[in-house]
Amino acid sequence: MSRDLLFVGSVPLDSTEEVMSTLAGAFGSTLQALPDGETGERRSWVNRLCYQVFNGHMDLETIQRPKPDNGVERMLPRDRSDAWQFKARAGVDRVRFGNPGYRLGYAKDSANSYFVFRTLREKGIIPPGLRFQVSIPMVNSVVRPLYFPEPGDLERIRPGYEEALAAEIETMLKRIPHEDLAIQWDCAWEVAAVHDPMPSHPKEIDIATHTAPIERLSRLLPETIDLGFHFCFGTFGGWPRFAPDDMGRTVELVNAVVNNVGRRVDWVHLPLLDRTDDAFYAPLAKLDAKGARVYLGMVHTPESLHQRIAIAKKYVPDFGVAAYCGFGRIPPEQIPSILADHRKAVAEVEH
Predict the structure, then answer these.
(1) What is the distance between the alpha carbons of residues 11 and 332, in angstroms, rounded to a whole number?
(2) Strand order in the sheet with 34-35
(3) Cis omega before residue 336 (within 30°)?
């Protein structure tokens, strides 16, 4: 398999079967792994956890929720100013989550999607050797200041959420054959945080704040499972949520993760902007992926793709391609043209 293409995760089609059949049929052995599209409520990435997990929790108080539509409750915020927000109740030192292994929904959804994956493989639609990819937002991308703005609350909530996520992983490992499974940790807030000092949350700029939970959770994964990372500049409110001057700080974060994770990393995905100047790309020369396949998120703006690939190859001679993020917030009718752009990008990077 050439492994020249990565899909981050979300694809706004109607079902897991449609997503897997579409991607496997169009790209087959060029894929690193095959995601289920994060269909349904997972299309909103971490926003669905706000109303499914945090809202109504006995130890949390909801201090803001999306404004209703004509008197009808609204689950997903219109923009960042309309986001869900919570705080720990007075006297609560640590927020914990019940029903371990099922509370967050990742284990249940992955088991259901794996059944579809296995069925399609038995029918010959999915090629042998391709792994089933489960993309999971990392702890700090979920429990972050946007949703928990009160000073001190991150420290009260993150350990319990990490514990709940570890239980999901344990359940997943029992229900999906390890030789078929690939886990991808999604890290969006982690990238933004290390670029932006926050007076109200000063520890967030420290890379070690973000590598610690990644290391602990990754050590739960046996070597028989593939491990990948998706780093992101964010798309909530429009892409990019922030635009760094260059790739330097992102590369520092990626290197720290790969060097401290404590096991083999199979791929790392880094987003890129529409920039065509060497200064933006030059820090990629310091990328130390320890043998992991590198994917650059550059499948956008087809007009400049050839130029951006040429510049990136100065600093990373061998890489695969991907979009800058998943497609969950993109209208479904745009998917055919997006997939066509991916086919052209794979041909371009292999040229």
Answers:
(1) 8
(2) 34-35, 132-137, 181-187, 226-231, 267-271, 293-297, 320-322
(3) no
Number of domains in the chain: 1
CATH number at residue 105: 3.20.20.210
pLDDT in tens, 140-194: 999 999 999 999 999 999 999 999 999 999 999 999 999 999 999 999 999 999 9
Which run of H or E residues covers position 342? helix 335-350
Q: How far apart are CA 123 and CA 120, in angstroms?
A: 5
Question: For 30-46, b where at least 16 C-beta lie within 10 A, e where not — what string?
Answer: bbbbbbbbbbebbbbbb
In which region does residue 283 sit, left (phi positive, over 0), alpha (psi from -120 to 50) or beta (all else)?
A: alpha
Does residue 129 fall inside a structural domain? yes
pTM: 0.95
Determine, yes or no, domain membership for 77.
Answer: no
Enclosing H/E stretch for 181: strand 181-187
